Amino acid sequence: MLPVADLGLLPESAAEHHGETPLCADTPWTSACRTSETVSDFAVVVADYADRLWGAGVRPGAVVALIKANHLDIQAVQCAVVRVGALPALLSVAMDPADLLHCLKELQRPHVLTDADGAAALRPWQDQLGDIAAGVLTLSPEAALTGAVELNEPGTHRVTRRPGTDPTLITHSSGTTGKPKLLVHTVDSLYAHVAPQINVVQSLDYAGISAKCLSFVHVRMSTGILTALNTGVPFLGISSPDPASVRAALLRHRPQTLEAQPNMFLRWETLARETPNPFSTAERYISSFDALHPRTLRTLLEATDHPDPTFIQAYGQTETGPVTILMTRRSDIREPGRLHSRDVGVAFPGMEIRVVDDTGAVLPPGTPGQIEVRTPARAESMIGRPPLPGRDSWWPMADIGMLRPDGHLELLDRQVDQVPGVASTLRAEDVLLDELPDLAEVVIVGRDGTVTAVAATADGKPVDEDRWQQARAKAGLPEDTRVDYRPWEEFPLTGTMKVRRHRLLPPGTLG
Description:
This protein is an alpha/beta fold.
């Protein structure tokens, strides 16, 4: 029996069971002892990183904050840190510099491990690192920071095993609505994240490569690598969501399964119209984090040559892991009512969902309210925050939705993103994207008592006014809704490509 959620021990154990299974990235492993092509390679890389961490003085109980370019090697370093008994804290290099510094202070003098990209983010505060960090380690000589030591002197590390209740990983929330929260996961809570994912994989016919283009510091990626190592699914990590890079990776590896964040899939819609079609071999797509725009789901399901493709959606957050699951087939997207549905599926076994009003009273099916969940996968604690309630308590998701009579959950809005006069900003955005194919992105925000659609078009030109007004009316937006056109590149995004809606508002305004 493999140690399911032990990040430090699992790579070596998985190598014994299915060492020749592909496990690779689409770009080189620049700081590793070798480029990983298989599970066995990955285990060797993890052990080498562990030796180098040990040689640099990292010992059991230490915290190692990892800040580097997005790549699958983040997961190997994470496993190595756990292997030597330390606690990895995975921080996104795309985080706002001020938030990054805040997180390092919250970690109370961690070791900082970085590369050239991470060093560039930290360089404005390098004079403060001596007070904030126990030491600065680098994965490459280009990552020049004052006092930094390159991680290149190996020792012989000692393997540390962790009880299930011990902390094993620190990740952070996306920071969509404010400063990122640092979340501590134990071996047991991480296992509760992984178990339903393993069950899904084992219930399906996984044979070809499973490709993931995600933020590799997100807990979803940590549970993804645990799932791959446990099940022996061939795995490809795609480093950049840039459409050209993704197209090249998909045409080279021809994956059977493709997972990405919702806004990545939205950005890739144009790839579905290219020849050769990079999605032609996809049998299933996977998306978690938030509900997917129906236009995007429909575009991708129609793009593949597979006769019966499936789109698997999960809803959850960093604090809880996946809570619901929804499987949509190509034939389903033609059902009445599916076009603008925000259905995110039913609860995974062992997890519970309810919708309540402002007083905490449970609302009947079909009534919008605040979504709460109860799950054994909830994070153990938040660094710098009061103790969390027990896992038998209901956890507020900070989302607005409703439970249908059939048990499916519909997601309507983030609580902080609600706009007066708009029943659901998410549904309104779905309708606009369906009615106006030239929109590459649209986000509804409240501004100074009015409603604004912040929009990007594929060709950079405004939508014809008559077409806009027809789509606006169909989306249920007020007649005086204004449109703020801007390039897609100017949308403020988190590391998981969620739009920071509050940053589309002028200072001092509320929705």
